[in-house]
## 1
Amino acid sequence: MTRTLTLISGDGIGPEVSDAVIRIIEAAGVAIAWDRQDAGLAAFHKTGHTLPAELLDSVRRNKVALKGPVTTPIGAGFTSVNVGLRQALDLYANLRPVINLPGVSSRFQNVDLVIVRENTEDLYAGLEHVVVKGVVESLKIITEAASLRIAEFAFSYARRYGRKKVTAIHKANIMKLSDGLFIDCTRTVARRYPEIAYDERIVDAACMQSVMVPERFDVLVLPNLYGDIVSDLCAGLVGGLGVVPGANFGTDYAVFEAVHGSAPDIAGRNLANPTALLQSAVMMLRHIGEVTAADRIMAALARVLLDGTTRTRDLGGTATTTEFAAALMDALADAR
Ligand code: NAI
């Protein structure tokens, strides 16, 4: 059966890594008809919108999307397409598993944690204004409803996947009302999951501990901004942004995308590592029930990484994106 899923290739390295991933999924024998949608500047040139209605309709129709990164201009310019997409589809939970990959050397070899980032509010609500010249106000929005919902997601994920502990990350010593409400909510939900240990860390101390003793963390639940920052930090523990996947879940839709951005410094040069988006696609395949193909891709990835002769530059090799994808497709064919 051929499924139709939405593909948002994005920009920068997005089209390069998406092409590689699509070919690998096809080589794994999964038949997907991709409903291709533009976002960001490419979409703006065609439709006058950075997040066109056609794209949102496509995800609503297909329920599942694979997404490459989309550039957001710094300072001035259009607002983030990524934030807009998450808000428009109410993709409230951003799930980012951070785990060592076989054959990828990194500072730590025992990292196995999962970041659950609230995706719809906090300082990402985009409510900023100039109060008077030289003074700008950004509103940090934390609601009980969104905090309870993300805590419930984190604990139910922990229960479903046999995780032992959930740690809430906050700065409630300073932001007593907003982050205070967030941890009130995580505590409320924690009481409903007595078999799962619960603790809390102030975000600055959590950053220090995660670069010293990352094995102490299991599932982390964070408001949006801390989640964004801690995700990149944790990616650095296991080999960098080229290897860490992610997924955005709402009640009705799921959009799978890597943690990394559009990497303008290497875009268009066939240098990007497609592993992060590939693993996001593996999460997607499991989500749609293609578990065998997902396992086969992960086995092929482990084989190529352990073999070590074909690696992209971020992992110390010289292979291009397309050479790495070809090695993976060869490994899939050999395993047949
Ligand atoms: P970035 O993640 O694009 O790049 C940071 C560093 O990591 C760069 O040196 C880059 O070359 C490297 N890197 C990232 N992905 C890689 C990969 N797959 N293989 C090899 N190296 C990789 O972060 P940056 O530079 O802060 O952001 C660039 C743009 O991406 C910005 O416009 C930002 O807003 C956007 N962005 C989009 C995201 C999304 O669409 N979900 C997420 C994060 C950033």
Note: The CA atoms of residues 41 and 77 lie 11 Å apart.
## 2
Amino acid sequence: MAPGDDLRALYQQIILDHTRHPRNQGRLEGPDCYHARGHNPACGDEVEVWVKFGPQGQIEHIRFEGQGCAISQASASLMTLKLQGATPTAARALLADFHALISGQGQVQNEEALGELRALEGVQKFPQRLRCATLAWKAAEQLLPQAQLPAT
Ligand code: ZN
């Protein structure tokens, strides 16, 4: 086995696991829940994201529904785990790092925060899949300005 094969197998497994058993799947209902939708016509991926913010502006609940390729759905599922509890600032920082990771452009600022998102690092070699991997993230990003930050 060549060095790196173990890691690749592990990453495959993470993606497969999230595709088969998506986390935080479903909708959020209520007047204080926000919703955005993403569509990637090149691949046919659809993702909808729901967010409810907590009193400190943090992402209290996040859920998604979607259909499409494994990359788009696994990325959405991983995203919900990562953004749960995050402040809008932390969410934007993670989004920037995730984009740097999968595009190979820019510097990752916080390696540690990426964790299982590393499973999608291979997207770097397939730039046409970039939109698949970022679809859910862009939908979530649209919702961040809705966070009510406590007055300081
Ligand atoms: Zn796709």
Note: Residues 5-20 form the longest helix (16 residues).
